[in-house]
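User: Thanks for the earlier help. One more: ATPase. Can you show the sequence and predicted structure together?

Assistant: Of course, both are below.
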Amino acid sequence: MTREETPSRHVILSGCSGGGKSTLLAELGRRGFEFIEEPGRRIVAEEIRSEGSALPWVDPEAFARKAFDMASRDRACVKGTQGWVFFDRGLIDAAIALEHATGIAASRILGGQDPFHRRVFLTPPWPEIYKQDNERRHNMKDGILEYRRLLAAFDRLGYETIILPKIDVEARTNFVLERLS
C-alpha cells in the first residue's frame, strides 16, 4: 500500500520549537479531536524530576531513544481510533532526532511502522512567539537548524509537508482541518 492509499487518520504536527504546535493542539482538543502531547516535553519533565540524564542537552541519543519508545507506545494506544488523531511531534520526529544523534537513517529506525497521514503540518520559525523555558533550553538558532532537518527528513520519507501560516490559533486550526478534508 503506498502512502497515498494509506487511510491513516494519524496526523503529525511538527516544525520549529516554539512555533505554536502545543497551542494548536489545545485548540484541536477543544474542538473535540483526540491528540497526543509531545513525548520530548514529557521526557524532559520526568528526567528533571528524577535527576536523570536522558536530556537533549546532556545525552541526545538517550533522549531520542526514550522519545521513540514513548511515541511508539502513544501510537499503539490510539491504533483503533476512527477519527483524526493529532500528534505533537511523535514517532517520526523521534526517529529523525535519533538519526541526527546516531547517523542511522530514520527510514531504517522506523522499519515497518505504519505510515502517518501523508500530509504533515510544520510550524515555521516564529521568533515573535518563541520562548525558552525549563524544558526548552535551546535557542532560536538551534530551533531553526532542527526545523531544517525536519523539513528535509519528512521529504526524504515521502511525506507532503505543509507549512502553517503565522496566524491566530483559530484560523490556523481551520487551515489544518481544511487541508485534511
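User: Great, one quick takeaway?

Assistant: The longest helix spans residues 60-77.
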